[in-house]
């Protein structure tokens, strides 16, 4: 069969009610207008819709699609969109979930995606603007596939979200339960680190990370959001860092791995992380820290530690707990000279 299809409605919600479909509108301005034009051809085993154009309220979709029918549907979709505001069409996460940590919020979202296990799909998608939970994602490009419940991302590029450029490639599974990442490579670039952390709801930083400068980070991670392995490198202004190990996401980041930090001048670095430090010398030389770390930023143990401040070198162990009013620190160090 082959058919050219067109449909236009200026009262879409009324039409949907008439055919016994009544989606929940998140805003009064949605499900008002729809325009559909498509060329459909195929048989009882498969069909294609090429080309198609759908205008839903203020969003325009265009592209082509193909579907192979059977026990497990196989879908191919190429689609372009101008602006898509998910907040207008899907429920926000419940208030009791919003106050939870980043991993719990993301896993709640994944728990609602069980339908992605029911079909296979090849997807190429582009959107000028996507809005989700009031956060704009500009110039989004996705190329990948879903096979037997596992999504393989060839490229996911987001030109701008929370003043941040994001790129991803790798595999995701766990739709309908908990997100699981396999060889997920990423790169992040931002001129406003603190804003990025707050907008994505990672945690509320007590340090102004923007003191260091623009962030450029890349790496690869494996595992679930609340407990994953990671190998990452980043620069922030003059600060360079590497970390390889595990991260647990609870109310804070819990690290267990090896870290190396470098910064051109010790005093500037110490002040940037919020310590009141006024040495007599205005330049103590390069700061370098290499250590195994366990714990959070506020409650940390450093072992097999090598710390250099200029020509002064410290070796040993340091632990501290800066939570609450009574801050505690303990050190067992060897120093070459002071």
General description of the model:
About 10% of the residues lie in helices and about 55% in strands. By secondary structure, it is mainly beta. The protein has an 18-stranded mixed sheet, covered by helices on one side. Strand 2 (about 35-40) and strand 3 form a beta hairpin. It is elongated and about 85 Å long.
What is the H-and-E element order?
EHEEEEHHEEEEEHEEEEHEEEE
Range of strand content: over 45%
Radius of gyration: 26 Å
Helix content: 10-25%
Class per helix and strand makeup? mainly beta
Could you outline the blueprint of secondary structure elements for this entry?
Layout (H helix, E strand, L loop, with lengths): L1 E8 L2 H7 L15 E9 L3 E11 L2 E10 L4 E13 L9 H4 L3 H10 L7 E14 L2 E13 L2 E12 L2 E10 L6 E11 L2 H7 L15 E10 L2 E10 L2 E11 L3 E11 L2 H7 L14 E9 L3 E11 L2 E10 L6 E8 L3
Parallel strand pairs: 5-6
Antiparallel strand pairs: 1-2, 2-3, 3-4, 4-5, 6-7, 7-8, 8-9, 9-10, 10-11, 11-12, 12-13, 13-14, 14-15, 15-16, 16-17, 17-18
Quick summary:
This protein has 338 residues and is mainly beta. It has helices at 12-18, 95-98, 102-111, 193-199, 266-272; strands at 2-9, 34-42, 46-56, 59-68, 73-85, 119-132, 135-147, 150-161, 164-173, 180-190, 215-224, 227-236, 239-249, 253-263, 287-295, 299-309, 312-321, 328-335.
Key traits:
18-stranded mixed β-sheet; mainly beta; about 350 residues; elongated
């Amino acid at each position: 069969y082959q058919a050219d299809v067109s449909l236009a409605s200026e009262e879409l919600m009324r039409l949907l009610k008439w055919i016994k479909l009544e989606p929940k509108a998140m805003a009064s301005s949605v499900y008002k207008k729809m325009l559909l034009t498509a060329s459909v051809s195929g048989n009882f085993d498969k069909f294609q819709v090429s080309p198609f154009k759908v205008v839903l309220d203020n969003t325009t979709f265009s592209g082509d699609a193909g579907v192979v029918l059977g026990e497990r549907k196989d879908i191919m979709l190429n689609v372009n969109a101008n602006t898509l505001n998910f907040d207008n069409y899907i429920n926000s996460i419940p208030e009791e979930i919003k106050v939870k940590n980043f991993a719990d919020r993301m896993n709640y979202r994944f728990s609602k995606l069980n339908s992605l296990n029911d079909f296979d799909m090849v997807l190429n998608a582009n959107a000028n603007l996507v809005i989700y939970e009031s956060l704009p994602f500009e110039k989004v490009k996705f190329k990948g596939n879903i096979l037997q419940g596992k999504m393989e991302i060839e490229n996911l590029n987001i030109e701008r979200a929370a003043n941040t450029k994001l790129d991803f490639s790798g595999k995701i599974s766990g739709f309908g339960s908990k997100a699981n990442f396999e060889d997920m490579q990423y790169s992040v670039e931002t001129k406003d680190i603190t804003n990025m952390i707050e907008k994505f709801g990672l945690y509320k930083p007590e340090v102004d990370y923007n003191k260091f400068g623009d962030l450029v980070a890349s790496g690869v991670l494996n595992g679930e959001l609340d407990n994953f392995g990671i190998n990452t490198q980043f620069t922030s202004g003059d600060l360079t860092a590497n970390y390889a190990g595990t991260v647990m996401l609870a109310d804070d980041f819990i690290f267990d791995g090896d870290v190396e930090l470098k910064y051109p001048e010790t005093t500037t670095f110490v002040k940037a992380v919020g310590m009141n430090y006024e040495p007599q010398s205005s330049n103590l030389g390069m700061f370098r820290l290499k250590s195994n770390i366990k714990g959070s930023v506020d409650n940390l143990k450093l072992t097999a530690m090598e710390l250099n401040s200029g020509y002064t070198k410290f070796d040993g162990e340091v632990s501290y707990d800066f939570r609450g009013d009574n801050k505690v620190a303990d050190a067992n160090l060897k120093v070459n000279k002071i």
